[in-house]
Q: What sequence folds into this?
């Protein structure tokens, strides 16, 4: 079946002859399934792999989010067996009530089929689905009940009456209810694509929320008795002091979930009702993508490429927390990474390890600040330096000096747009002529939610929306824009995944002269737009008109386009 699978992918233009030979050789040497190697190497997406496996095996595909799973089907097999075998029954066959339809990820998974057949005393009809869809369906059907059972077991077995230390000394700590509860909580967050888990103490309960695509969603509430044990368990696995409850703490721990490696950053904060705990989930391989996958296209992509080819100068990536700056920086560094250059980074914290790049962790307790680390790095013969964030005038000054003396320096700033980044450096005490001389490009960005492709609905544009989008009146009737609906795949939100919206300001000779003469933010922005810079409003507007996102997302992230209108009026 491997040859048929690879031939299909090659016919689709997704696999070269060299890649096919290399995969088959690796499969024979290490005995790893070809389908696993294809996903691990990032050669194909899960959806494309299932399409190819369906062709190679003759087993039809199924999208589990298109219809709910009936309760009588859910009761056939215990959820722990489904997770262990990556399989889920989803319906009884319409033509034969003694046959159950089962979603599998691996056509050769006979053990999973036998388990369902034995449990339901029925025949099994296989369908292929992605691992993500199967795990998400299991969570939807059983996840809430599993967490409730673990919480109930914690109180019923007397665990809540024992001290945390006594609970941790028991022999079966890994099987204790609170350990299972925390593990299930993190698993559910991963399967639902959450970036953060918020565990918050209220006056009478513990509230759990997941941040998915930038928006918080309530998931579960627990008895307040559970809070100390949940927080203690998280502190233990992240290396924090479980006895210290009066001051904030920060920690981290790695996990491997469904074959993917995640870095979990933990922050605790004392509140009036108990400690609040936030877990940030970062999938390491998701931090490096192609520039097109980030959302850069057309002229913006060309400008970004030109900026990265300049051997010295400073490149700034700006935007608020959670706008995707780290992903953009890591993507750029991965592209620049080669044996011919020495790349050194200073980060707080190091979010992903990149082979071939020297990464330095900031440590204020050891006096390893951004500024001190940068001074040391300059003696390490670097070609490219990445500074996680310019936070003060000292770091800004050293970074600018380094960029002028022949290094390419990349860093981030917390500013609203490209033009205001120049003002921020001025406020930090950097001279305007140095900023003009050193800066080669500034990229501002936000993230907008993508409309769920499974349920989005196109509708005519309303008059006030057409005016906001700047559409000629003659086009109003012909334009259709997307709006969120909500389905099982997107958990009823109407949105699935996010995409970057960018503003790329390439520093031209005229802009350089303007910056050197203490120009205001408005003057810099006006000139940049006249020279062809597309604002974030314009970038998001294009995504609305092509149906990728909604107009409400444009309104949420867009800076008012007064400046654009003024420029157009003057032009």
A:
């Amino acid at each position: 079946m491997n040859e048929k699978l690879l031939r299909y992918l090659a016919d689709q233009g997704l696999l070269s002859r060299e890649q096919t030979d290399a995969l088959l050789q690796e499969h024979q040497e290490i005995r790893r399934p070809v389908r696993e190697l294809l996903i691990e190497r990032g050669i194909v997406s899960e959806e494309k792999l299932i399409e190819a496996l369906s062709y190679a095996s003759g087993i039809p595909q199924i999208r589990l989010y298109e219809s709910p799973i009936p309760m009588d089907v859910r009761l056939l097999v215990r959820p722990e067996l489904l997770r262990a075998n990556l399989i889920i029954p989803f319906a009884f066959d319409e033509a034969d009530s003694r046959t159950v339809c089962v979603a599998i990820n691996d056509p050769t998974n006979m053990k999973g089929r036998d388990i369902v057949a034995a449990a339901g005393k029925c025949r099994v009809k296989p369908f292929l689905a992605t691992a993500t869809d199967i795990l998400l369906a299991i969570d939807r059907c059983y996840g809430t009940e599993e967490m409730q059972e673990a919480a109930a077991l914690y109180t019923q077995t007397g665990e809540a009456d024992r001290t945390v230390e006594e609970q941790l000394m028991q022999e079966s700590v890994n099987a204790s209810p609170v350990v299972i509860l925390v593990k299930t909580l993190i698993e559910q967050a991963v399967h639902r694509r959450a970036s953060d888990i918020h565990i918050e103490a209220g006056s009478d309960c513990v509230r759990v929320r997941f941040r998915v695509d930038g928006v918080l969603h309530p998931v579960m509430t627990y008895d307040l008795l559970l809070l100390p044990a949940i927080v203690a368990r998280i502190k233990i696995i992240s290396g924090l002091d479980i006895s210290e409850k009066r001051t904030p703490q920060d920690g981290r721990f790695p996990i491997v979930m469904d074959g993917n490696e995640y870095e979990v950053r933990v922050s605790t904060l004392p509140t009036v009702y108990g400690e609040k705990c936030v877990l940030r989930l970062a999938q390491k391989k998701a931090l490096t993508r192609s520039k097109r996958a980030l959302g850069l296209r057309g002229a913006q992509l060309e400008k970004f490429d030109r900026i990265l080819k300049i051997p010295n100068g400073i490149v700034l990536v700006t935007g608020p927390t959670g706008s995707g700056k780290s992903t953009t920086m890591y993507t750029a560094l991965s592209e620049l990474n080669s044996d011919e250059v020495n790349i050194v980074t200073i980060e707080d914290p190091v979010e992903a390890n990149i082979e071939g790049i020297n990464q330095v962790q900031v440590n204020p307790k050891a006096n390893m600040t951004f500024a001190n680390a940068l001074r040391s790095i300059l003696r390490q013969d670097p070609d490219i330096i990445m500074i996680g964030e310019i936070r003060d005038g000292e770091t800004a000054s050293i970074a600018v000096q380094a960029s002028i003396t022949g290094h390419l320096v990349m860093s981030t700033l917390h500013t609203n747009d490209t033009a205001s980044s120049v003002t921020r450096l001025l406020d930090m005490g950097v001279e305007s002529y140095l900023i003009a001389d050193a800066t080669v490009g500034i990229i501002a960005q936000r993230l907008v939610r993508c409309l769920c492709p499974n349920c989005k609905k196109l509708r005519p544009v309303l008059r006030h929306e057409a005016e906001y989008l700047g559409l000629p009146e003659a086009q109003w009737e012909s334009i259709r824009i997307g709006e969120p609906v909500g389905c099982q795949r997107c958990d009823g939100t109407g949105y699935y995944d996010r995409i970057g919206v960018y503003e790329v300001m390439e520093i031209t000779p005229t802009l350089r002269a303007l910056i050197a003469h203490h120009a205001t933010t408005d003057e810099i922005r006006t000139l940049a737009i006249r020279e062809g810079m597309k604002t974030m409003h314009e970038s998001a507007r294009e995504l609305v008109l092509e149906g990728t996102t909604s107009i409400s997302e444009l309104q949420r992230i867009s800076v008012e386009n007064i400046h654009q209108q003024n420029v157009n009026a003057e032009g």
